[in-house]
């Protein structure tokens, strides 16, 4: 029986990356999708059974203890053959990224916390402004490390480091010779750029609630056009940092948006409807804050106990209903 083509490092990395990006997708369906991506990239395509076995190995949680959640008591842990100790001065930054992850109902893993403690000195601005970039880069470094562990392919440290100091345009020009080479069929090094608004801020909605991919899909792909339309629409509106300069307000806004994105009808909304929902939610937050409220008084437990119910307008219920997502489902 033929064993098929030998799997290259590039193919191993692609399989690992897609597996980590799609943790809940059935293995067989994911394998078929990966085969199409590999073929599109111009590499020899492994058998579906081979890919399924590799996906299973990558998803095995017992093989990677650093996927466990980080908490304030974890100040050191074994990392391969060494002991990693968190520098004391890094703990405030790690806590803030943990806070950001909590707002999105996501887990800050031990590996990601490690990378936050390593990378935070590179972010010189105020942490409330840089937290999304620090969170994003810690995710990227963590993912690259996981891919390296399961494929035995070295981390792309030069690429990772370049995006710590270069903006998207500089990165694109740097890679210009590669992008002009017809043999390069996949933007391997440019598929992790942060979605950036025209005001220079990060479009956090496209990171957490409306994920897009405008770098790898072929130009005639319908989904690629949909993603590009979304990106262009959201570039025109102010970024979340401009709308909500106070971090607590921004995190409350993002948590509502993250909740709504889990609604059964959210993925059925058109690009215009998604943009409208975002604008409505922003206006809801601004209206509440304009009434003299602040983030600490949006939900007062004393008011809840006294009234026996949530305060009026404490949640943007109409928007939750649009996504077919109710507070009962959250409960």
Provide the fold topology.
Blueprint: H1 9-21, H2 27-40, H3 48-59, E1 76-79, E2 82-85, H4 91-103, H5 110-119, H6 127-151, H7 157-165, H8 168-174, H9 176-180, H10 205-208, H11 222-235, H12 240-243, H13 247-260, H14 271-290, H15 301-307, H16 317-322, H17 327-330
Antiparallel strand pairs: 1-2
Helix pairs in contact: 1-2, 1-3, 1-6, 2-3, 4-5, 4-6, 5-6, 13-14
Short key terms for the protein model shown above:
331 residues; disordered C terminus; 3 domains; mainly alpha; two-stranded antiparallel sheet; 2 strands; 17 helices
Structure description:
By secondary structure, this protein is mainly α. It has three domains: 9-59; 66-195, no CATH class; 196-331, no CATH class. 55% of the residues lie in helices and 2% in strands. The chain contains 17 helices and two strands. It has helices at 9-21, 27-40, 48-59, 91-103, 110-119, 127-151, 157-165, 168-174, 176-180, 205-208, 222-235, 240-243, 247-260, 271-290, 301-307, 317-322, 327-330; strands at residues 76-79, 82-85. A two-stranded antiparallel ribbon has the order 1-2. α2 (27-40) crosses α3. The longest helix is centred in the middle third of the chain and has 25 residues, at 127-151. The protein is globular, with a radius of gyration of 21 Å. Mean pLDDT is 78; it is low at 177-191, 299-305 and 326-331.
């Amino acid at each position: 029986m033929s064993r098929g083509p030998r799997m290259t490092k590039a193919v191993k990395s692609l399989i690992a990356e897609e597996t980590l990006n799609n943790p809940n997708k059935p293995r067989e369906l994911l394998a078929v999708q990966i085969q199409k991506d590999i073929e599109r990239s111009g590499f020899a395509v492994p058998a579906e059974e081979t890919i399924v076995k590799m996906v299973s190995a990558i998803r095995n949680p017992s093989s990677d203890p650093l996927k466990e959640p980080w908490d304030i008591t974890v100040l050191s842990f074994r990392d391969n053959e060494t002991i990693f100790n968190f520098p004391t001065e890094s703990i405030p930054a790690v806590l803030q990224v943990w806070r950001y992850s909590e707002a999105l109902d996501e887990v800050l893993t031990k590996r990601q916390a490690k990378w936050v403690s390593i990378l935070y000195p590179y972010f010189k601005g105020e942490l409330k402004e840089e937290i999304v970039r620090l969170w994003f880069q810690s995710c990227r470094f963590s993912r690259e490390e996981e891919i390296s562990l399961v494929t035995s392919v070295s981390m792309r440290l030069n690429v990772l480091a370049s995006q710590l100091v270069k903006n998207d345009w500089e990165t694109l020009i740097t890679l210009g010779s590669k992008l002009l080479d017809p043999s390069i069929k996949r933007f391997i090094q440019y598929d992790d750029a942060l979605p950036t608004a025209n005001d220079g801020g990060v479009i956090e909605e496209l990171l957490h609630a409306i994920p897009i991919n405008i770098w790898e899909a072929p130009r005639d792909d319908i989904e690629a056009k949909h993603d590009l339309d979304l990106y262009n629409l959201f570039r025109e509106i102010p970024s979340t940092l401009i709308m909500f300069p106070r971090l607590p307000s921004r995190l409350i806004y993002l948590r509502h948006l993250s909740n709504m994105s889990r609604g059964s009808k959210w993925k059925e909304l058109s690009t215009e409807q998604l943009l409208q929902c975002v604008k409505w939610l922003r206006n809801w937050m601004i209206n509440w804050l304009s009434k003299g409220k602040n983030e600490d008084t949006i939900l007062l437990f004393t008011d809840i106990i006294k009234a026996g119910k949530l305060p009026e307008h404490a949640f943007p219920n109409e928007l939750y209903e649009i996504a077919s997502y109710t507070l009962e489902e959250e409960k």
